[in-house]
UniProtKB/TrEMBL annotation:
Subunit structure: Homodimer.
Database matches in InterPro entries: Acid_PPase, Calcineurin-like_PHP, Metallo-depent_PP-like, Metallophosphoesterase_PAP
Catalytic function, reaction form: a phosphate monoester + H2O = an alcohol + phosphate
Name of this protein: Purple acid phosphatase
Length: 328
């Protein structure tokens, strides 16, 4: 009799654990199938771009097409500030075609585009940018606040970094941000951090990349995002995330210490040449380029290569990471 009760409470406990772990991570998940026979993955990263082709956006797009073809890319990642100045007005805003569909026309760019939102996108109608209506207009478009994308040996954790930034709430200047579905802010942030931490901990991918709009470590105009250093960085460090990839500063940048998370900025999709860079330890600052451009990444089981290009398609910098412990 006593044993029966014990067995009952043990199975109840398992039931509870199953129920809790099944319901905890609310991040949407999707898979991008691996098509190459060696299992490798190639993609481009561009940020801060939607200006109807202006400020060299079209030239960057053209070079992305050429590099995309050379690498036979699987998809493109957008790190936010997709539509300037104030996001999209609605699902029928012609800026969607003028800044996206009619600009990234090269055949090699006719792939899925996985996008997060930037602060400028939050100045418009956020739900419009997340809407399936846009995907019906252009099948490539996939934008969410936060989500997990699995592709073979890589798992990407896309994070909405906008609500972390205090000044958008306390000192928004003349800007209006669309915080519908974000408030209350504290709960949004704590749920997001919790879901992200859980999703990364559960991940069995060889490579773990986190993608957001705002820089954590950056020598660019905006400087480091202290809220992300305080709240997001510990999650990346604890879970040994390989790369953090962002935009926001309109530059190309690589900050990193060997053996730790590398910080890659690809915010050169259109307007650039701000002309300022903040002091940074030169041992860590491997690249700072103030002008336009984009990045490519090529991932195999044992290595990630990342390359930065300017508007002429010239390689500005390249670097790689290896998984040394693979055979242990
Ligand atoms: C376009 O790119 C060229 C080459 O980098 C640069 O000299 C020029 O200033 C850029 N134009 C704009 C508007 O940024
Ligand atoms: C707000 O807009 C007004 C009028 O356009 C301008 O004079 C002022 O400098 C702006 N304030 C900020 C903080 O940008």
């Amino acid at each position: 009799m006593k044993m029966g009760i014990g067995r009952f409470s043990v199975s109840l406990m398992f039931l509870c654990i199953f129920f809790i772990s099944g319901s905890l991570s609310k991040l949407q998940r999707l898979k991008h199938p691996v098509t190459k026979s060696d299992g490798s993955l190639s993609f481009l990263v561009v940020g801060d771009w939607g200006r109807q082709g202006e400020f060299n956006q079209s030239i960057v797009a053209h070079q992305m097409g050429i590099v995309g073809e050379q690498l036979d890319i699987d998809f493109v990642i957008s790190v936010g500030d997709n539509f300037y100045e104030d996001g999209l007005k609605g699902e029928t805003d012609p800026a969607f075609e003028a800044s996206f569909s009619h600009i990234y026309t090269h055949p090699s760019l006719q792939k899925h585009w996985y996008a997060v939102l930037g602060n400028h996108d939050y100045r418009g109608n956020v739900e419009a940018q997340l809407s399936h209506v846009l995907t019906q207009k252009d099948w490539r478009w996939f934008c969410r606040r936060s989500f997990v994308l699995s592709s073979g040996m890589v798992e990407f954790f896309f994070v909405d970094t906008n609500p972390f930034v205090e000044k958008y709430f306390t000192d928004p200047g003349n800007h209006t941000y669309d915080w519908s579905n974000v408030l209350p802010r504290d709960r949004y942030i704590s749920n997001l951090l919790h879901d992200l931490d859980l999703a990364i901990k559960k991940s069995r991918a060889t490579w773990k990349f986190v993608v957001g709009h705002h820089g954590i470590k950056t020598a660019g105009h905006h400087g480091v995002t202290q809220e992300l250093i305080d709240q997001l960085l510990p999650v990346l460090e604890e879970n040994k995330v390989d790369l953090y990839i962002n935009g926001h500063d309109h530059c190309l940048q690589h900050i990193g210490t060997d053996g730790e998370t590398q910080f890659l900025t690809s915010g050169g999709g259109s307007k650039a040449w701000r002309g300022d860079v903040q002091p940074w330890d030169p041992k860590e600052l491997k690249l700072y380029y103030d002008g336009q451009g984009f990045m490519s990444l090529h991932v195999t089981r044992s290595q990630v290569n990342f390359v930065y290009y300017d508007v002429f398609g010239n390689v500005l910098h390249q670097s790689s990471l290896s998984k040394r412990s693979l055979l242990l």
